[in-house]
Structure formats: structure tokens, C-alpha cells
Amino acid sequence: MPDSRSWLKYFDAESVTRLSHIGFKPELLVEGHLVGNHRSPFHGFAIEFAGHRQYVPGDDVKHLDWRAYYRTGKYLIKQYEQETNFTAHLVLDISQSMGFEYKHGRKLDYAAFMAVALAQLVINQSDTVGAHFFDNELRGSIAVSGSQDIVGSINTSFEQAEVKEPSDLGRVLSHLAERVGRRQVIFVISDFFGDPEETFMGLKRLLDDRHEIVLLHLVDPLELDFDIPGRVRLPDLEGEERLDLVGSDIREAYNEIFQDFLTDMRQRSLALGIDYLLCGMDRPFGFHLAEYLSQRTLR
Amino acid sequence: MGFANLTILGLGGALLAIPLLLLLINRKRQVIPWGAYYWMQLAAQKKKKKVRVTEWLKLFSKLLLILAAALYLARPYIGFGDDGHTLIVIDNSLSMTTDSGSGSRLDAARERAISIIRETPGRISLASYSDGLQLLARGQTEPANLERLVSAILPAAGTASGAKLAVDLLAMDDLQELGGIVVISDFQRQYYADGSVVEQLSSRLPDTCRMTLVPIDDRTSINNLALLDWRVASEGLHAGRENLIDAQVKNFGNSPAEQVPVTLFVDGVDIDRAYVSLPAGETRWVTLACPLKEGAEHAARLSLPTDDYQLDNSLEIVLAPVASYNVLAVVPPQGSDEQFTKDVFVRSALLAVGGENSWNYRAMAARQAQHQDLGNSDLVIVFGEPLRQGDVLTERLQDFLAKGGGVVSFAVVGQPDFWSGFDVLHAEEDTSERTIDTQRLDGGYLEFLQGDSINAGQIRVFRSLPFLNAPASQARLYAKGQENPLARAIPVGEGTLVCVGFLPGPGYTDFYYNPNFVQFVQRLAWEAMAKTPDLGVIGDGLSRLPLPRLTPNQHYTWQAENQTAQPLALIEQGDRAYLDLKQPLASGIYIISADGESMMRFGFNPSREDSDIEPAADQLYAAATKRVQVEEGGQGGGASRELAWLGVILLLAALLLENYAHLVHRT
After folding, report:
1. Of the residues A113, B49, B206, B624, which has the maximum number of CB atoms within 10 A of its CB?
2. Quick check: B37 and A243 CB within 8 A?
3. What are the residue ranges in chain B where pLDDT is below 70?
4. What is the dihedral sign for C-alpha A148, A149, A155, A158?
5. Please, are residues A32 and A86 in contact by the beta-carbon 8 Å criterion?
6. Closest CA to B426 of B386, B373, B367
7. C-alpha–C-alpha distance, residues B169 and B125, integer Å
8. Percent residues over pLDDT 90 in chain B
């Protein structure tokens, strides 16, 4: 049967399949509405025995129903504790800086692939996902859903996105905090080209609501190492100004300053317990996600 | 200021423009819309000044490098005359015939002169210089004409001394209008080593005039051995006898010479060879055997192997063996108690060399000799007869001497005014026993005893008449402790009178027992007869060539063997006449003829004064000043030392700027 998702521009089936084998498990206790795979923080409340389900590798063995095993010879998990699903919110940067393109494709497209793959991963886990597109304000949101349709919606939104405004992530995150509930998983896919102070203020606002936050920082290799000899003109993607430079003269200074920015991002994230992943666009998005998700399973 | 290679300078100028053009034209930039603008802006602000400075420093250093290279290759020079008047002086003295490795120094000088002519704007005067400055062209503007004149410059006999050059240049009428003087020479060490010439010119040249010295051939080690002189025993050369000829060799180089052959050719035949080893700067005599079979004249040549300076490698000599000479001895009557006649020892000494074939000897009393036709004699020897004014014998001898005859007069003591007939004064007789003064043998008949021969101090004189007022040039023998000479050679008319202050016999001296008495008597005879067994001149020795009687009604010519004859002018000065012989360049055997008849054959050899051909390279550069510059190595244009240093400084500055720019970039 043909894959109904194959017509999606930003769907990479191979990467998604690989990621699905790894899966994503939220670390924080999440609130979920559906019965899912993740431990609920609500112990001792009015929960009911809901039956058994087949044991799958990774389940906590303390929930095995040994009586059922003696009876049936099968490994079954008791579903007597209420289990919940998590909702992932994809916060997606469509500001002007995401229109940057050099030798590794457009940053926005990279983000789109990543977002679509994450959405599909969550759906595959029977979790739900929503998406929020922003530049200097929230431009649009796709309601949380566990349906396959949301993957297509995210894809379509990226295809139609116009990168025409600068970003203001800090303000957007603060607004977002009022719209999402509590204890969600929030993936922010962006280049984070804004004031880190304001960005992290917004993130802190989300942390106050016990969200688990993952920052996926997209960086083009040229932004990491400005290896352009000779004369170069750099128009600001998010403004009217431009710089005329000699690449070899500016390289060292710029690299140093930009590294300081990345270090600052990492350290701030670490201090706040936020997962931070630097995604160089010279590597496939799937590589970064796989590496990240694998590391999470080892925790 | 000018440039020896304008083409390179033009190219250098074009190259200088390239970085500038690239800077102006190549404004193309790669455009990359940039997202991380904030951080790039921060970096740009930090690097703004340094980037600009670095760029300009790098550009400037590149321009300096190109400029330094262009200046060096363009060979700038100062003082060659801008659009004014330049004098080019080319040294064509004998030392310029030195082989410089690829032709002679003069060839290289002509080449350099032509290149300077082509590169010098304005008017150019041209002069050659050997014994004096010889102007060849004045204020010319046609390079082609000047080049023809340069090509026609030939070596000239003469020595281009620095002191004389300075004098001649400073004495020039149009020195004030000269903007530049270029002297192309080998600048021999012997004339330029002390730098005084450069100093003199620097202090006395007009402010508007600069001089450039262009050294040709600045090698510091040049091989040159030279034959300086020769000598033949004064008793003459005798056919059938083992004659000897000495050659004087000098090593002018600065490295020793080992086993150098000195060869004697007679009439083109290799007769004898001797080997000599010489430390640098040393002079030695070598002896070669010279057997002569016949009595005719012979062309002889002493020869060294080829080296860098050829002119002093040979000596051409005409050898004239003794013919048969008529000797008349005037002797007093033999006393009854005398064992020997007065002339026996002299006669024996004469006949000991050459025998009766050479000496047709007869003796007679004075009274008899007065009536003899002395014109048939070559030599008259007078033993103990006074030659006083008014005596018949004196008058006959005066006449004989006037016509070129030779007279030897031995004195007896006790006879006052012994030679009053010839205005020759003598002191009172000296009866002290004296020995010969070995410290004053130079130029005398016993000069040969200065070597490792029998000690001249063994010769004793018991009675003698010393000469008064004898010029040193006429003195031939001294006794120890005696201020005045005992033998004297006096020119009388065309002839020579040799006076000896003692009798060569018992009671006067024991000299006649000494084997060297033979040489003594032979030398007396040869000087009196004015005969020269060997005839050759070196350099300006032509002026002292003993020519026979010259008369104005004869037509004189001279020629080298196998070449056409050239006329000779007769110059009369007071009562003396001489031929105007100009020093030729080539060595060889020359013949002087009168009305087509050969009257004299002699060997000519160029001067040895220029044989010290070592250039004063380092000393010349050390002496250079602002006013008088030295062109480096004789190559390229007249780049002054200052300009060379300027080029080095530009290069260093360029390298420093490049490094500084790099450092700035790194910080």
C-alpha cells in the first residue's frame, strides 16, 4: 500500500523510520488525556484497573502481571494505573533569518524536515503534537492532534511560510506559555538569532509551567566558520543594513564571537535543565535527532 | 638621476600599477544574505580599523617590493649628466690590454662606454686616457658617431696614473659646464689604492659635476709574471764562446709561481731554458746560456709563458757579438829595471776574452803614436802618459774622441795636471794602501762583485790619483775611505774618455793578480768604445737610444721587421740632434735606416710600468664619496652606493610591513 505521506515535501521516510525505532520518552511527568505509554504523575488518585496489555521491550518490569504469566505464559503489563500520553508542541521559527541559504540548503527547509519528522515520531507513539509558527509574533498554530493529518498540515504550513519578518522568540514564548497547558514537551526549532536574555526569559516562563523543553539550534557551517576569503557583501536578512568585508580579515574575530554566542546558549540551557542540541546543517537532520533521542534513552 | 635600463623601469612602473588597478577594478564581492548579522557586525566593528590598516599595509608592502625590484633592475645612476654635458673617459693605457677572461679590459671598456652613451641624454664628450687626456669628441649628440669613435680606440703606450688623471681633469677648460664625468678604467692598485685620487677629485670638482668611476675587471687575483730587464756581461758577446745572459723576472701576482720556464730564442731557435720559482711580489735573476756561432747580429728573445698580461712576457734584444777591434796602446819606454811593460796586464786581460780574433792589439811609444792615423783605431789605451793641454798627443786624442773614438787613460803619480787637456781634475796622489769600497760598486766596473763572487775588498790599491768634482754619473770605482772615485768615464765629443787613477801594474795595485781584472779591463774597453753587445730598449728608453751621427740632409725611417717603414723626424736641439722616436705598442726588432740604408737594429719592448695590473677594487669602493661614486663591479649602470642601500632599505621595509600586517591581522 503506498505511503500516504510520500507526497509530503518535507517527509523523509527513512529518517522517520529510524527515529521511530528509538522513540521519544519525555523525562518529566506529563499530563496526558489518553491512555499512553508514559507514567502519570497522578499516583493514588481514583485510578482503575484497566486491563492488560502486551509487554513490549522497554516497559517497566515491575508492572508485569506475574499471575497472568503463570496462567497464560505471556508477559502482560497491568494497566491498573492510569497512563497518560504527552503532547509535543513544535515551536517553529519562520523568521527572515531562517531564509539563510548557502551550500546546505535553506535553513527553513531543514527545520521543516526536522519538524515533520518529529511530528510523525510523536504520532507514531500515539502521542499528540501541535505546531506553532513564529517570527516576531505567533503567525499561526496547528491545534494539537494525534492524527496523521497534522503531519501534512505542518508540511503545508512550511511550504506556505513567508520569511519576511525578524524574529522575537522571547516574546513569542511568553505568549505561548499562556496557550499551552502544563507539563508538555516543547521542541523549539530555530536559529535563535535574537537576544539570548529575552529568549531565555521566555523559556523560563515555560519552565515555570513544568514543561520539558528541547532546543534544536540550527546552524549553517558557514555561520560556524566564516571561511570565505576575499571580498564579501553581507546584507542583513532581517534588516536593511549590509556589511562589506574581506572574509579572511574578519573570520577569526567573527568565529570567536559566534562561538561565544553558542557557548552562552549551551550554558544557559544547561543551567536551566533544558536540552540543547546544536544541529549543523552539514549533517542530515535525522542524524542529529537520532543521536539526541538515543542519548535520551540512555539517561 | 638616470636609469641604465629604462625598459625595466617602465615595466616596473606597469607592475606597480597592477596592484592598484586590481584594487580599483576588482570591486566584485560575493554577496551572501546573512542571518547572523548581529554577530558579524560585532566582529566587523572590532576589526574595522585593523582590517583597513592591514589592507593598506599589505598593499603598500607589495608596492615597495615591486619598486625595490624595479629600481634595482633599472640600474639607476646619478651623475651621468641629465640633459647637460657628460664626459666619458676611457683608459687605453697598456694595462687595459690585460686579458679579463673574455677579451681584453679595453674590449670591456668599449662595450661599457657604448652602453653608457646609449643611456645618457644630452651632450657627450669623449676622451681616451693613457699618458694624458686626449679629447676625441666634444659635446656630441649623435650616439652613432660616438660609438664609432669608441670602437676605434686602441691601446696606447703610457701609464694612466690616477694622480695625473686628476690633474688633467681638473685642468680642463670646460670642467664647469660638465654635469657628469664617467671614467672607465681598470684603476690599478698601484695608482688608486690609497684613495687620494678620489679624495682630491671629490674636494675639487665643481658642485654641479659628479663623477662615476666604472671599474673594469675587479678581480682580486690576477696572474702576471713579467720580464723586467736583462743583462749581458760587459765583456761582450763572443762568437764561439759560452756567453751568458741574465733575465730579471718578477711575480706581480699575489700567489706564488712555481717552476716557471724562462726561454731564450736566438734567431727564432729555442737555445736555452731556465726555471724560476717566485713568491708573490718577488723579483729574481736567472741566467741562460747564449752560444753564438757567428759574428753577425742576432735577434734574441727572452720569453715567459702566456698569462693575463702579455706585454711584459717577452724581451726583444739584438745581440751583437764582438767584431774585430783595433786597439792602439800608447806605452812609455820600458825602464831597465822593469820586468813588465806597462801594458802587459791590460793586454792579457783584453786578449783573455775573444783573443786576437777580437782584439787587433798593437803598442807604440807616445812620440810615435802622435803621428799615427787614429781613425783606424777603435780604442786607444794610454799608459802613464799625461794628457795636458797643448800636447800633440792630447790634441790627437781630442780629435779622435770628437769623432766617436774611445780612450782609456791610466795615470802615474808624480805628474801634476795629468789630464788638464780634458779639464779633468785630480787630487794629490794618495799613497795609502786602500781596498776597493764594496759599498759603492753600483754602476761601476766591479758591480758584478756585489753577488756571491770573489770579495772585491781583497783588491788593493797602493798609489793613486783620486778625481775631483766627478759627478756620480761618471764615477766607476771607489776606494774605501776615499771620497773621490778612482775611475771615471767622461763623454768627450762623440766619444768617451775613461780615466783610471792608477797604473794597472806593480807598485800601484795588486789588482792584476785578481781574475776579475779581466772583466774590469773588458768593461773599460766596452765603455770607452761605446760598443753595446746587446741592444734593446724598454718603454721610453727609446729617448736614450745611442744613435750614430745624425745629419739633417738624410732621410730617416724605421720599421718593425717585415712591416712597412715609417718616416722619422730629425729634431735638433742646440748642438744635439735626435730622432723623434715615439714608443710603439708592439715588442719586436726594429730597424732604423738612413736613406734606405740600415743604420741600427734594436729590440723594442713596451714599458713595464703598468705591469702591476691588480685592480684597486675594494679600496676604490671604500674611498667613494657623494661626489665621486664607484659603479659596482663594472656591470650594470652607475648605481651609487646610496641607491643600492635605498633598494635594500625599501626591500626590508616591504618585508617588515608585510610581517606587521600579518601580526595586525593575527591580533
Report:
1. A113
2. yes
3. 1-27, 49-55, 70-83, 234-235, 294-295, 451-455, 575, 633-647, 658-667
4. negative
5. yes
6. B386
7. 13
8. 44
Looking at residue B332, what DSSP letter applies? P
Nearest by CB to residue A254, choosing from B30, B39, B665, is B39
Are the Cβ atoms of A234 and B33 closer than 8 angstroms? yes
CA–CA gap between residue B255 and residue B221 (Å, rounded)? 8
The amino acid at residue B328 is L
Contact of A238 with chain B, judged by CB distance below 8 Å, is answered with yes
Chain A closest CA to B113's CA: distance in Å?
51
Using a 10 angstrom Cβ sphere, with 0-12 exposed, 13-18 middle and 19 or more buried, the burial of residue B549 is exposed
Contact B464, B479 (CB under 8 A): yes
Task: Report the residue from B28, B31, B43 with minimal CB separation from A235.
Answer: B31
Choose, out of B27, B28, B30, B32, the residue to mutate when testing the contact with A (most A CBs < 10 Å): B32
Cell of A186: 516543547
pLDDT tens, position by position, B571-590: 887 767 788 888 888 889 99
**Under an 8 Å CB criterion, which residues of B touch A?**
26-44, 46-47, 50-51, 54-55, 665-666
Q: Which residues of B touch A100 (CB under 8 A)?
A: 33-35
Whose CA is closest to B22, among B51, B68, B55, B65? B55
Which residue is closest to B51 within chain A, CA to CA? A249
Does the pLDDT at position A46 exceed 60? Answer: no
All residues of chain A having their beta carbon less than 8 Å from the beta carbon of residue B662 are none
Specify whether the CB–CB gap between A39 and A30 falls below 8 A.
no
Q: Please state the pTM of the whole predicted model.
A: 0.55
Instruction: Indicate the Cα dihedral angle B512, B515, B518, B523, nearest 10°.
Output: -100
Across the strands, what pairs with B249? Answer: B227, B284
Between CA B335 and CA B344, with CA B338 as vertex, the angle to 5 degrees is 105
- Note whether A258 contacts B36, CB cutoff 8 Å: yes
The C-alpha cell of B506 is what?
806593480
Q: Please report, for residues A94, A236, B628, the alpha-carbon distance to residue B33 in angstroms, rounded to integers and kept in the order given.
A: 16, 6, 65
Contact A115, A209 (CB under 8 A): no
Phi, psi of A119 (to 5 degrees): -60, -45
8 A C-beta contact, residue B272 and residue B292: no
C-alpha cell at A260: 561565544
Nearest 10 degrees: Cα torsion B608, B610, B615, B616? 110
